[in-house]
Specification:
Number of helices: 7
Helix content: 25-40%
CATH superfamily: Thiamin diphosphate (ThDP)-binding fold, Pyr/PP domains
CATH architecture: 3-Layer(aba) Sandwich
Shape: globular
Number of domains: 1
Structural class: alpha/beta
CATH topology: Rossmann fold
Order of helices and strands: HHEHEHEHEHH
Largest sheet: 4 strands, parallel
Oligomer: single chain
Length: 196
């Protein structure tokens, strides 16, 4: 885990500061920001940051650790960006360690081989549509070989939470339907409690 100093903030501390600073710097309806006549002479009290100490994806990393997953293979992407960030920053990129792959099919193939050698599953993160479609043939091969895998599919089910563009294109109502005929179990947890 990277240590932060006064001059090299962590990503999370930077984002907390940026979230607080940005609204103050933007003009409202084309008007310049109000000038505080005491701004130069007074030092503001400590700012109350309205965030939690840990985000939901940190909790998900704790759940993955409870499953004794040593590694997670993935082609990094936006549909599971928070979980990827938590594996690296919150989890210190240890147990599970994130292994960057160039393609979802190779991620599943690595998990297949690891399971055959180690006798336990490896984790894989995949995107809700295109990633799972790319991974489908390798998932089928693992199913034919009766090899256990643990796959987490990034998907934004709630349309009100999707950002424009890619999140609309890469989200589906039922992501697991693509591979349901050749998987043993699938589920769609919609809360952290349900994920656990």
């Amino acid at each position: 885990m990277r240590k932060s100093s006064k001059f090299s903030p962590t990503r999370r501390s930077f984002l907390k500061g940026a979230a607080l600073a940005t609204p103050l710097a933007l003009p409202v309806l084309g008007k310049p920001p109000l000038q505080n006549p005491r701004a130069e002479t007074s030092v503001p009290a400590e700012v109350d940051v309205l965030t939690t100490e840990h985000c939901g994806s940190d909790f998900m990393v704790d759940v993955l650790r409870s499953l004794d997953l040593d590694y997670v293979c993935a082609n990094p992407g936006s549909s599971f960006r928070a979980l990827h960030e938590s594996v690296i920053n919150y989890g210190g990129n240890q147990k599970p360690e994130f292994i960057t792959c160039c393609h979802e099919e190779s991620s599943i193939a690595m998990a297949h081989g690891y399971s055959k050698v180690e006798g336990k599953p490896l984790g894989v993160f995949a995107h809700g549509t295109v990633g799972l479609q790319h991974a489908a043939m390798a998932i089928y091969n693992a199913w034919c070989d009766r090899v256990p895998l643990f796959i987490i599919v990034g998907n934004t089910i709630d349309a009100t939470m999707r950002r424009p563009g890619v999140e609309w294109i890469h989200s589906v109502q039922d992501a697991a339907s693509i591979v349901r005929d050749f998987t043993k179990w699938d589920d769609t947890p919609i809360s952290l409690k349900y994920f656990a």
